[in-house]
Amino acid sequence: MTRPPVRHRIITASLLTVAALYFLVPVYWLVVSATKNSADLFGTFGFWFSDHPHPVDHLVAVLTYDHGVYARWFANSLFYAGAGAVCATLLSASAGYALAKFPFRGREAVFNVVLAGVLIPGTALALPLYFLFSAMGLSNTYWAVLIPSVVSPFGVYLCRIYAAAAVPDSLLEAARIDGAGEARIFGGLGLRLMTPALVTVFLFQFVHIWNNYFLPLVMLSDSDLYPIQLGLTSWTGYADRQPVLYQYTVGGAFLSVVPLMVLMTVLQRYWRTGLTEGSVKA
Amino acid sequence: MSRDTLSRPEPAVRKRARKDTGSRPRRASRTEARNARAAAGFVLPFLALFGLCFIAPIGYALYQSLQKTERAGPLGLGGREQETFAGLANYAHALADDRFLTGFGRVLLFGAVQIPLMIVLATALALLLESASARGVAFFRSAFFLPYGVPGVIASILWGFLYVPGISPLVKTADFVGWDVDFLSRGTVLWSIANIVTWQFTGYNMLVLIAQLKAVPGELYEAARIDGAGAWQVARHIKLPLIRPALVLTTVFSIIGTLQLFAEPMVLRPLASSIDSGFTPNLHAYSEAFVGNNQHVAAAEAVLLAVVACVLSFGFLRLAGGRAKGHR
To answer: Does the pTM of the predicted model rise above 0.80?
Structure first.
């Protein structure tokens, strides 16, 4: 392969660098600002550290403010996203596996209904869901956020495509001849062979639930049940009267971004492979 | 980082092969019954919850949108509340509301400008990263993708601080060079929101496009290069047509996302007086339900929103699909 001309490489590098600045500067601002107290947040230049950075103190202040309510929101977010994504993955895996491996009447109809679910905007659904759940007495409970989070039509779609390609029928037949039940075959063979797809579904759903704002906003009124996003916006709502909350909002935003950043960086390659499966057919 | 963790799926092939099992009718029917039982066990848990969280709410919203609350008692105040059939009155009410319609117009304008910009940017970055001239690909890819890990609310809070005078280093810097800029004025705030959305989702779309680019066999590029095609020609005539499906997918998801626009204006509202409660259709439906206490109109608006989203995304799919056939 011939090496591209130097001129090309310089142009490419500068364009990529400009883009990287655009995407990274706000994150950089967040990191810098998390080390500042309220006065410095307003009084010093935003893109540089103040004279007395106190990152640890400020983050501890965020965590302990109002009897540690931030830590509670953080735990809630972890619970919604963690438990929700695990259940969503298992449900999608089993439905996708069945749609790929058992020819039954109405299979395509079921699959098409699920696919239509991918195209329905989530927030258009959230309000009706609230009306329904509130009629059922489920609003303002953990269930109100958790139950809708475990349904992932996209996960089913992905699992079906993946199971069709990665789980050989001959292997299933062999297991059946050995006398294994369908549930055991799925648990022992199917799930194992589908692992890469399951990681992708888990990640998608985890980030989706973690980032969801509208659903918890309409469902929850008790601040003890809030996920982080909702908690932080409730702080910004009071910041006019209590300016220290600006500082806590910045610190809280910083803390909330860290776990997802780590997750994203580590699992990026699974993520990418999952995306291809999604786009091949569309 | 290779793609070998997932092999390319071939769903259609195996389906055919399956049909041949059980040549004798009796055995076939027994297999069928066994299949159906097993499949039901695997599919029903998901379908039950799908029904509860997708189908039932749509049905309930349709039902609610056709109802109205009537208050018995003098002057319609106090007394018992009663639900009665309202016909299409709630839809008429929603469609007669100037602010609701303006909000729709606003997000359509937003989408018409922001989606093409974002997709072009994502495509350009994907092509640059996948070109032979790029160095430090892993770093840049992660840097561009990073904002996707920032939830919409946090991104809006973050950019809100970068927009608001007094705290924003951007405004200060602009001021310093003599540029008097207001990111939150009536005329600019929509584009400030567009910037937040672009910042968040360009990297995600770029990754989808890169994934599809990777699926293109390398020999194709080699052949083109041997034929004397430059980097630009390879991108224009080979890569772009081949990543069409991914471009369609990202555009459809962007259309759906745009119509749902909510968190960004909601978070920026305290900072920008130009954002009112009807700024986007979603915001309008939300305030009808929780501020105006008018569930029925809110339900009608949610239905309208879903219908418009479906029409637009299906419409785009048709359009894109039709053109693809024309090419072949």
So the answer is: yes
